[in-house]
Amino acid sequence: MNSIRLWIVLLSLVTFLCGLGTGLFVAEREARAASLKKDYGEFERSFVTVFELDTERQQVLAGLLELYNRDTQTIKDQYAAQNRHEMEPQLRRLGLEYRSVLRNRLLPASQRPKFDRLMASKVENL
Questions:
Q1: Residue 82, φ and ψ in degrees, nearest 5
Q2: What are the counts of helices (DSSP H) followed by strands (DSSP E) for the chain?
Q3: What angle do helix axes 3-51 and 112-124 make, rounded to 10 degrees?
Q4: Assuming Cys at both sites, which of 57, 68, 79, 117 could form a disulfide with 53, CB separation 3.0 to 4.6 Å?
């Protein structure tokens, strides 16, 4: 085999493997984003509609949901091998913390009573 042909085949193979690796990486990242939208998509749409969030606040909400998902997944991973009862208080505290951020930082003061009523009705339905 001619030396130039060997280099062409080798370069083609390396290029193919780099493309394959990149494709798998992007596919995994997109799958995670789709999973987040599936998990919190309805909540996000409802929240945006009920509180009439502008585009900037919608982006902040999307970021908060992504952080919340990451934080809850970290807690779940830490306790995956342990008893679920040990995880519940920490998840409850995290939920209350993010509820406070949504209410006190994301929503304007005029929307907070509406949020409080909505949360009270959700608690009653549990």
A1: -100, 180
A2: 4, 0
A3: 90
A4: 57
Chain segment 25-77, per-residue pLDDT in tens: 777 766 665 555 567 788 888 888 999 999 999 899 989 998 998 898 888 88
18's tokens:
């780099």
Among 62, 71, 57, which residue's Cα sits nearest to residue 33? 62
Query: DSSP string of 13-66?
Result: HHHHHHHHHHHHHHHHHHHHHHHHHHHHHHHHHHHHHHHT--HHHHHHHHHHHH
| 73's tokens | 């997944």
pTM: 0.51
Cβ-count burial of 80 within 10 angstroms (0-12 exposed, 13-18 middle, 19+ buried)? Answer: exposed
> For the chain, which residues make up each domain, given as ranges?
3-124
